[in-house]
């Protein structure tokens, strides 16, 4: 009896080690919703297991917990997590817990799209390899095309053209058919700091309250005069596009794609307009990192290579809507709506005057305040029509305070300019 | 087992439930509001909340909603309840209680489909030839209309709970009182004022307490109809938690809501005290 108990205890103690012998622990802030993570486990990770005999435990987590967990594991010197997937901003401020992947990156031999690799170095180190990307797009109903201002081309609009376009439509139809997701759960703040600010001032933060910033807001007030007032409650633009409450809209891909999937023939995806400083776009990059304390670095690298294969990149687009980061992913002619979106994004990423911005990171617990500053400014200047220079003075001070107090690094492109 | 032991045993699940689902979240909200991440006591979060421009308008609008919606609901519910108990109309009762089963977000969306640009109201006016093109009812420019829309939606959605309580209360009043009042020559108004209302006081009190507490939690209807334009306390708590990712300030808002609710409950209990 004693003997059996002893064996049982030994098994119980050794069991976790036995199991972890062939396992990679994969912590991710992306693909967190149950249906997405299940899809990912079933369609991607299980194939990796059957091909290489390495099991992967995929753990979805929130943004805050991601950093907390990695830091506490790093400090204690031993942890479970081998591989991570997160936005570039998730890695901001915790780079010391990750392995330098400079050599691995150059040995990969993967043909990345240029915009994906532009900003991956943090203090000279590459700590994550680009894996997936997503962005925001402009979409219009084909009915709107005949109202384009004279001489304007849909694939090369300026913000001035966009304004005149919306004005033409309103003059002809009596309706305001340009729309933005400015409802409480909409992403209007991304439009402001990732599209308008870089296009008009060349940066997201630096020119927040100077004369360039004021100019941008004065333009936005003019554009808003031709924007559908329903915008102030919209959370995402697929519904208003489908119900034709708007003909032209901007939003995140995942919040627009239903419209394109439902009626691919009715909509056109067009590149972001350009402003006086360039063509601002916001890029969301998901990167794969390996923790410095991992025992399974070689297996983790193998998984990274697998996830960057053409086949998986393509499958991820179809299954989750995330765009590939590698060039020349081919789709059949006139293919699926997701392929249409991908084509639209690829066209945009080839523009020569692009100003690529990243979502700011490194603000830790106070990252929400960044969002709040841009949204509050929007409410005051646009919805309440207050004088921009007065409002900007107040919120500019808060923005500077936020960066001074947290000591966070400025996001791209601001970081480069400084 | 002695009978008082049995009582404790029977009460135990409830006590555990309250401890687990009410007191422990309350405790952690309190901790989040007054202690920073390294466990030090701080008033920073309170100061930050109070200094935020949105705080005052959230407080203002929440109180405005409470003082507009609740009296309105009480009167409507009382009139319908009187009609139902006098005429015994059960189908009316059934119809009026339908909104009870609808969640607040759904109610907000229903009214959104009434007032939106391509909504029922616009199509109705258009079909009558009264308008040439749709009107933007729910525009950020008409804050008063947004307010009105929220009041309408809330009135439609949450009056039935008041109604249910009042109907139950009315049915408990014995017929003898009414008959006595009539024999002594009381008219309809006098009967209601001197007989029905005083006897209905306990029901009115519980209806008021329940409705006021719920009104301070009102959130999804406002969100769906007025978006960002009309801030309310619980909405701010939600935004600070999910959008601005600051659980500390969200907890300050939660505590403020609890404090105000407790205050109102106390006032109701005091003002409407039963004379024995």
What features would you describe in this structure?
- The complex is a heterodimer of chains A (418) and B (276).
- Chain A folds into two domains: 2-134 and 284-344, Periplasmic binding protein-like II (D-Maltodextrin-Binding Protein, domain 2, 3-Layer(aba) Sandwich); 135-282 and 347-417, Periplasmic binding protein-like II (D-Maltodextrin-Binding Protein, domain 2).
- Helices cover 48% and strands 15% of the residues of chain A.
- Chain A contains 17 helices and twelve strands.
- Chain A has helices at 2-20, 34-52, 63-76, 88-91, 102-108, 114-117, 159-173, 188-201, 211-224, 238-242, 253-262, 297-307, 310-320, 337-349, 367-383, 388-406, 414-417, and strands at 23-28, 55-60, 83-87, 121-122, 125-126, 129-141, 178-179, 248-252, 267-270, 279-290, 323-324, 354-358.
- In chain A, strands 1, 2, 3, 6, 7, 8, 9, 10, 11 and 12 form a ten-stranded mixed sheet that branches.
- Chain A is globular.
- By secondary structure, chain B is mainly α.
- In chain B, α7 crosses α9 (188-216).
- Chain B is 77% helix and 0% strand.
- The radius of gyration of chain B is 23 Å and the shape is flat.
- The mean pLDDT of chain B is 87.
- The longest helix of chain B has 35 residues, at 53-87.
- Chain B has one domain (40-271): MetI-like fold.
- Classes of the chains: A alpha/beta (418), B mainly alpha (276).
